[in-house]
Amino acid sequence: MCTPAELSQFLCNVERRAFKHAVFAVHDDHTALDIVQDSMLKLAEKYGAKPAEELPMLFQRILQNTIRDHYRRQKVRSSWITLFSALQPKHDDEEIDLLDVLEDSNNNTSPLVPDDSLQQKQIIALVEQALGKLPLRQREAFLLRYWEGMDTTETAEVMGCTEGSVKTHCSRAVHALAAALKAKGVELP
Amino acid sequence: MTYELNPVKVAQLLIKSTQQLDNATLSALANARQNALKRQSAQASVLALTPTSGHFSVGWTNRLIPHSATSWVAAGLLVAILIAGTSYWQHVQEQQIDDTDVAILTSDLPIDVFVN
Fold first, then answer.
1. CB-CB neighbors (< 8 A) of B9 in chain A
2. How far apart are CA A146 and CA B5, in angstroms?
3. How does pLDDT run across B79-109, given as a tens digit for each residue?
4. How do residues A75-119 score in pLDDT, each as one tens digit?
5. ipTM surpasses cut 0.90
6. pLDDT of residue B116
7. Any CB–CB contact under 8 A between A133 and chain B?
8. Which site among B17, B19, B41 would you substitute to test the A interface, given the most A Cβ atoms closer than 10 Å to its Cβ?
9. What does the pLDDT average to over A41-68?
10. Which of A178, A184, A189 is closest to A125 using CA atoms?
């Protein structure tokens, strides 16, 4: 059985990565925080008595399931919103912002050259953006394998699929990321 | 020509990105962690107070015992329905036997009794 200190240490180690996992999935910081908090509570409540070495697998499984639950709720909610919004009159012309279409052809100033840290931040932002655009299963497989450091068997267990599927998802994720970063002109240092 | 991407480099960048989280997010994560730890200790104390935890057969009997007022009411209703049903069934049976006895005594048995 894991002690409160072990659980605290585990959660401390995993919380930032868990938050990022959730952000990539839901694209909203507040929702991501809710998901991480729910996952932590579920882990502590239902599996707080498990040995410490079982916590990473359990937590990842809970996190992925909580993200999927969020998707399901979102789907139901959006179907209701679509239903009700269809009944309301549309005002498309109000949404146009003139600044969006304003051209500045006489502006010849060169863009600012970013310093290293800023450049790194920009690269990180582009990588995260590309990750966020990956299909759910590909992103899960990629992050669990290469970020969480799980092997194929563990990843398959967390994702509830075969090892072959994990390899396929990872391969496709790597290719998709490479293509997305190449299109943006990003080369990783 | 395809651009070879090293996943380890992506992971390194992601680790750097976790180090750049803002204070509000870090504080929210710390709160979430503390809440989870409280939940673990609360759950542990509940388990410690339960004398049958960890024993399969006794655990099942423990689950069968109602723990809340609602459960007790539901269990009481179930028992009352069972008793009422059984007594009604017995009453109907006795009534049928009585009717047959009366019919035998008065030699007024229906024809169905003699068929087959």
1. 188-189
2. 12
3. 999 999 999 999 888 887 787 777 777 777 6
4. 888 877 877 777 766 555 555 555 555 556 666 655 555 566 777
5. no
6. 55
7. no
8. B17
9. 91
10. A184
DSSP code string of A2-61:
--HHHHHHHHHHHHHHHHHHHHHHHS-HHHHHHHHHHHHHHHHHHHTTS-GGGHHHHHHH
Residue A25, phi then psi, degrees to nearest 5? -80, -40
Question: Which DSSP category does A113 fall into?
Answer: P
**Tokens read off for A74:** 């979102």
8 Å CB contact between A35 and A26:
yes
Q: Does A130 touch chain B (CB under 8 A)?
A: no
Do the beta carbons of residue A53 and residue A161 sit within 8 Å? Answer: no
- The CA-atom distances, in angstroms, between B106 and each of A19, B100, B114 are 88, 10, 16
* Structural tokens at position B64: 């069968």
Token pair, residue A160, equals 């509830």
Rg of chain B, C-alpha, whole Å: 35
Name which of B28, B30, B35 is nearest A41 (Cβ-Cβ): B35
- Chain A residues lying within 8 Å of B3, measured CB to CB: 178-179, 181-182, 187
The number of beta carbons lying within 10 Å of the beta carbon of residue B23 is: 7
